[in-house]
């Protein structure tokens, strides 16, 4: 089956099979959050991005092989509703952006700064700190040595625009700056984007619209 990135709450997960990494995408909760389970194919170690909701569904997806770590992309409650239950069941180590950790009610084991590397088995993910949607939002970049990059953007970047900055011009300017300089300026058009809600996209599909986003202010 070809990966599409289209998932619905209550429906099946979709799996993106890369040479070194398996990416399972599943939708959970009343706000249609995406959770992503990453599995190193060499070691079978697993990492979850956003234990957003519905712990039973997430634990069923994780299965019997355990969970090494959970990364929370930002402090907004719809992205951590199942975090406590998942950590209790798996003993996973928790990661979050340094500036957002205090807003997450589950203790953060590892505070993440811009440029930090988070590992899942033999796979390395690079965290980038993007300011605007929240003070401490992070995105994770997997630069696949066998293909194009993959970026997990939380609520910082979606098909059609950046994340909600609540009509704050300063926050919008900050988020646009960080999205452009830390994602669009350094990654190729083929880069696959996995957002915190909704369908996937690519940087190439979104790049022509950057001036339009900046002009409209959201």
UniProtKB/TrEMBL annotation:
It holds the Pfam family Lactamase_B. Residues 32-197 form the Metallo-beta-lactamase domain. Signal peptide: none annotated. This is MBL fold metallo-hydrolase. CDD domains: metallo-hydrolase-like_MBL-fold. Transmembrane segments: none annotated. InterPro entries: MBL_Glyoxalase_II, Metallo-B-lactamas, RibonucZ/Hydroxyglut_hydro.
């Amino acid at each position: 089956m070809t990966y599409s990135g289209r998932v619905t709450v209550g429906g099946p997960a979709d799996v993106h099979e890369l040479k070194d990494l398996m990416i399972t995408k599943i939708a959970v909760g009343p706000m249609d959050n995406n959770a992503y389970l990453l599995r190193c194919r060499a070691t079978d170690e697993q990492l979850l991005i956003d234990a957003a909701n519905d712990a039973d569904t997430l634990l069923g997806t994780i299965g019997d092989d355990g969970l090494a770590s959970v990364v929370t992309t930002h402090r907004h409650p719809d992205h951590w509703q199942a975090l406590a239950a998942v950590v209790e069941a798996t003993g996973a180590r928790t990661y979050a952006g340094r500036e957002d950790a205090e807003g997450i009610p589950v203790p953060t084991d590892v505070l993440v700064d811009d440029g930090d590397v988070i590992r899942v088995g033999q796979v390395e993910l690079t965290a980038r700190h993007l300011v605007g949607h929240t003070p401490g939002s992070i995105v994770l970049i997997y630069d696949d040595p066998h293909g194009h990059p993959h970026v997990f953007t939380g609520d910082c970047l979606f098909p059609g625009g950046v994340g909600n900055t609540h009509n704050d011009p300063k926050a919008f300017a900050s988020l646009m700056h960080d999205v452009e300089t830390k994602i669009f300026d350094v990654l190729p058009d083929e880069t696959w984007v996995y957002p915190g809600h909704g369908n996937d996209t690519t940087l190439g599909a979104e790049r022509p619209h950057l001036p339009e986003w900046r002009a409209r202010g959201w």
